[in-house]
What we know:
Elements: H1 3-30, H2 39-54, H3 60-63, E1 64-69, H4 70-77, E2 83-86, H5 90-103, H6 109-124, E3 127-130, H7 132-142, H8 154-158, H9 166-172, E4 177-179
Parallel strand pairs: 1-3
Antiparallel strand pairs: 1-4, 2-3
Helix pairs in contact: 1-6, 2-5
Amino acid sequence: xxxxxxxxxxxxxxxxxxxxxxxxxxxxxxxxxxxxxxxxxxxxxxxxxxxxxxxxxxxxxxxxxxxxxxxxxxxxxxxxxxxxxxxxxxxxxxxxxxxxxxxxxxxxxxxxxxxxxxxxxxxxxxxxxxxxxxxxxxxxxxxxxxxxxxxxxxxxxxxxxxxxxxxxxxxxxxxxxxxxxx
Length: 182
């Protein structure tokens, strides 16, 4: 990597510091309560942390995948709004943070914060560009709706299974990504 890119990354990490410190402190101080939590409570805590991760500063240079859905490109070309679709689910990000902190109890805050920033830059904060409708369809791909959506066949609803990765979720939601040329 060249010096300019390294300097840019260093500056971006600096901007993340204050929010990452809050995230770390919330996670670290509340992990002690997880032992008494049931499954739903643990998932709620992971989602809470994932939401904070989601709201960390974004930097197109490091977080944007360079991929856009065909429909989003068409909407953008017609001056319609599009959405940053974070393809690493919030709850999953929160769970990874909890697992890391449990496993690395004696870590210095600086080490843990550096790990969080790297995860955000390389994984958690990554996004593609999609339409709002596609973003809603992806939610259904990650979590089966309680009732069959009107735009789904009975077969699609009955054969729903949790995707192993974002690629499976996008295929299920029938979203085609292309390289963004802008």
